[in-house]
Structures are given as C-alpha cells and as structure tokens.
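Deviation from plan, reported transparently: zinc ion complex.
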Amino acid sequence: MKALVKTAKGVGHIEYTDFPEPEPGPGQVKIRVKACGICGTDLHIQHDSFPNFPPVVMGHEFSGVIESLGPGAKGVAVGQRVVSEVLYDTCRECRACKTGYDNLCLTRRGLGWAANGAFATFTVVDADRVHPIPDTLSFEEAALAEPLACCVCAVCELTQVTAGDVVLVSGPGPMGLLTVQCALAEGGYVVVTGIASDALRLQLALDLGAHEVLNVQTEDVVGRLRELTGGLGADVVFECSGAAAAARTGLQAARKGGKYSQVGLFGRPVELELDQVVLKELRLYGTFSSNWRGWDRGLRLAAQRRVRLRPIVSHIFPLPEWEKAFELASSGQGLKILLVPAE
Ligand SMILES: [Zn+2]
Ligand SMILES: [Zn+2]
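Because the crystal trials were delayed, the predicted structure below was used instead.
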C-alpha cells in the first residue's frame, strides 16, 4: 500500500512511498482509511520537535471503515464506520491505565509517531479503541473526533468550565475552535483572541457561537477581560496557540484563583512569568492526548450538533499531494486540512 512515512530522525525525511500493508493481530481490526487530518503534531514531527520513531507511518486523526478483524476482536464488525483512539501498547495494568488515564501510561505509544498511523490506505488498531461513527456524521467530520476528544479532555474533564465562567481561548486554529465549542457547551462566556491574519478564523469563532473576539495586536485583552468580570479577570484560560506571547497574556488575564490550561505545544522552552501562578494562586493544567471518556463525550457532542465539525475542515487533498497540504498547514492559513488516501 501507499503511505506517508517519516523515514529517518531529523528535520524532514517524510516520503509518500510503498509500505507493507498491515494485518490485524489478535484483538485488532484493520481499517480502510477514508480521511485523516493534519495535526500540529505532524508539523512538529516534520521539524523533529516532537518525539518520533522512524520508520513510522504518520497520521492519527482519522476515520474509516473496518476492512477485516483479527482473531478474537470483539464488539466490532466488518463494514462498520469507525474512528479510533490513538493509544498503542498501553500496559492496562499501571495506575494510569487502571484509573482511566491510559493516555499517561508509561509504556504507551502513540499512533502516527511511535506506532504506524493513518496517512495510508490501511491502518491497524486494537478493537477496544474503536468507536462507531454516529450516523449523522460524515467521514470528513469524524476525522476530527481525535482533536475533539483532546479538547473535551482539556475543557470538560480536566480543567472544567462551569456555567457563567468567563473563558479566554487564545489561538483560533482547529484546536482553539473545538475548545471554544466545548467551553460553550459547558455554559461559558467565551472570548477568543488571535492576530490580524486570524481574521477569518475569528469570524468563524463568532459563527460557531463565541461571544467576543479580540485582535491581540490592536486590542487590550487583559483590560477587556477585567471589564467583563468586575476587574477580576478570566475564570478560565485555554492557551491553544503554542505561542509564548499568548501564554504570557493568558497568565496575566487569568483572575486570582483562576485556572490556566495549556493546550497548544510550543515545541521549545519558552519564558513565562510563573510568579503569576504564585501571586494569583492559579491552578495550572496541561492535557496530553485523550482517553475513552473524551472520545465518548466528544462523539456525543458532535452527534448532538453542539460541537460543529464541518466548518473547521478548510481543505481536502489527495494523500499524494501531502507536501502542498503540509505547506498550507504550516502557513497558518486555512484550518483543518484532511488528506484522503487513494482507493
Ligand atoms: Zn492531533
Ligand atoms: Zn499503563
């Protein structure tokens, strides 16, 4: 089969090439990939600023149809439309696994950087990681189930937004726009920030229900959040851009006793004023990947149309045109870009 492969460590080394077709082992399923999104993580793997173990098929945000079952695979059927969690080789015995945080398992590998992923005709996953796609969702929408699950884990599971909270979301990219919708579903008053080149993305944030948008280059973000909260500041901050300046503003914008949640990856060490955490008794959160609860709740939110996924897909390219698609993704233009493998 054809696949997009990280062939060696270092910057670049990505090739669209022949790769052995995977077959499902015991308890696994083989999935014919219908669509797979380009994630910020894929760009970090391209630039070698995220762990990766070549040779490895990239891609982890996908939807597809079950092609065949390995021995003993339960609860799944050939022909079923599915998405899959991205965890591989979790031990299922450690404290993290047993308490439902298997995204933090020490032995875990991730699809698309440590285990072969879904920028390919086929991929193989454990049957119990698979979730059926609700009938009302297309393959294109369902390909966003993975980033949505991450945002649900960040917003609804870990950081938690309560009705009436004033919420700041910085960075109106795909993760930001999913975070916005999760925070809205939880009852937050949501303010989204971006830069001038984010104008279309900020407009989309408003279309998706955000209450206010601000351009950080021309507007006083911290001042506006204080204005909205009787001088206090944001109850909850989600930093989704991975830009140091946005993180610094977020720490300033959070109220005393508020919460700050880092969703975006910086890919490098950055300088932040952590005294803000001390002086304001901020609660600081990080979220990594996702767990079953995030997938379950995320798919329900999408099926209920309380989170809208299709507006976040800006481009769809055939997989062989991956280079053009990666360039577009790196440029910061567009939103979620999907790659579709050849039949
Ligand atoms: Zn991702
Ligand atoms: Zn474990």
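Residues 149-286 form a domain with the Rossmann fold fold (CATH 3.40.50.720). We consider this an acceptable substitute for the interim report.
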